[in-house]
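Input record, target 12 of the design panel.
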């Protein structure tokens, strides 16, 4: 498995050396690529499936025992989000290809109705994923501006376990629960 050791001991697994960044960008601006080769931070490859390895080859996972949203954690979540985004885009491309392949006239009315229903379901799923990509992009922007991992309502750190489970989270568990309670109250009125 090709890896490239960064100057801070983090290496990318199953990735490239980050010179060209992600999506053809140079990797020095924004969340696209963000492999800052040569300026003292670690190279993160285009695809590492959110697995960072230490200099000793151990898999890195963020913990509550280290400083919150340190550079290593930011790199970890950036890669996790970029991988998730890439997977969604890949699925969307496959769905589009499938829909184009299935674009045929069915002589049987029941087959045509079934095909149209399947198509509508696929398009709704893609629309939800389009919205998810916007949330992923917003999370990547928050990583870049230093606000990622902090609750938008209280400013408190969001638990690492919550960010692992939902990397696009903008509210702490407590703030999310309050939000959902208010939503139920207003919905019931």
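The sequence produced for target 12 reads:
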């Amino acid at each position: 498995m090709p890896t490239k050791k960064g100057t801070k001991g983090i290496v990318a697994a199953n990735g490239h050396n980050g010179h060209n960044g992600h999506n053809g960008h140079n990797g020095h601006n924004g969340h696209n690529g963000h492999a800052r080769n040569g300026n003292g931070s670690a190279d993160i490859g285009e695809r590492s499936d959110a697995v960072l390895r230490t200099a000793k080859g151990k898999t890195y996972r963020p913990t509550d025992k280290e400083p919150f949203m340190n550079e290593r954690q930011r790199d970890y979540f950036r890669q996790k989000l970029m991988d998730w985004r890439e997977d969604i885009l890949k699925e969307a491309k496959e769905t589009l290809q499938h829909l184009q392949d299935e674009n045929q006239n069915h002589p049987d009315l029941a087959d045509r109705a079934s095909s149209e229903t399947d198509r509508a379901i696929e398009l709704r799923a893609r629309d939800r994923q389009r919205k998810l990509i916007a949330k992923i992009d917003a999370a990547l922007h928050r990583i870049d501006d230093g606000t990622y991992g902090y609750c938008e309502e209280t400013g408190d750190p969001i638990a690492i376990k919550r960010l692992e489970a939902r990397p696009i989270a903008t509210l702490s568990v407590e703030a999310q629960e309050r939000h959902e309670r208010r939503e139920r109250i207003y919905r019931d009125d």
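The chain has two domains: 11-148, 149-189.
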